[in-house]
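Project standup — Tuesday

K.O.: blocked on the structure for the chain from last sprint. Re-posting the sequence here as requested.
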Amino acid sequence: MPGKEWCTALATALSLLLAACASQPPTRPHAASPGAPSMSSASGRSDTTKSKTLTGAIEDTYIMAPRQVGPYHLLSTHNYQQADTLNGRQVKPEVLGGVQLRYGYREHDQLGYADIYIYPLADGDADAVLGRGMQHFVDASHLFVKAGLYDHVDVGAVTPVHLDGIDWPGREVTLTLSRDGQTFRSRMLLFMHHLYFVKVRIDGKSTAGQSIDSFVQPLLTQVLPALQWVSVGTCGRDKRILTLKPGQPMPPDLNGGVSTDGWTIAMALPAHDTKASGDRLAKQLLAETALAAKRQQAGGCTAMDYAPPSGNADRAVLHLHYPADLFSSHTH
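H.V.: unblocked you, prediction finished:
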């Protein structure tokens, strides 16, 4: 039977570990089912693919975008959860709208830019989720003609994305659009990363005479890895504390007593119940808790307390907040 000293240490450490994540989601949502395509010429996201659920609850997400990456600058940002004026039109807030980041050369009107959208989706099988997302985009592209934006739209084949240094699951498609006798190309890439869709749109008119292919590769291989975001919530993950009996070896996959993803912590019980052993156990668990928080954050979602960085001259920080009942109301 555990003694008083290490029980006290355990209670102290566990209170710190579990305080931020005591509540579990009512049910575990399935993978995302992106909503029906919508037209939104004001936002430029006429190919919007919205997910209705997330795997596990997310309360807040903080997106850190560097203001300069190599020769590319963060030219503008937009948070779709906030009412604002975008492209000359009033935009209503959308709780699942995510954010838009425009990266390019400082003189983007002459040298080109790319729009990057980050918005929530459910975790799930990459092929299935990306397949649905791309299909909704392809379906929505035909609305361009109905809306009178173009005379004709040809949709290319959907193919896997191959970008050096980017290991996110992704798909891409190229559209050829014609209007008033002129032909334009638009390339769209869709990725999954850290419980979010990352969509990139680059139109031929935005690359100032460069081919889209030659413009995409250098920009995205530098900008995408520089973007970071951390979500806070239950994250749809199960937290586990592994109790080790005195003398039992640490499992090899628990480096530092913590799993690689930060969701499992090992607790090595002392052989003797003394104040010294209780103090050592408490110190061990506090160190493991800090390491677990760091590793969860690196994975993009944490159930621990998180203090986001502030925006400054080097980075923009965009905050997305979700109502407490949003994801439970979307479970199925």
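K.O.: great, moving the ticket to review. The helical segments are 4-18, 108-111, 126-141, 143-146, 212-226, 275-298. The chain has two domains: 4-26+240-299, 58-234+308-330.
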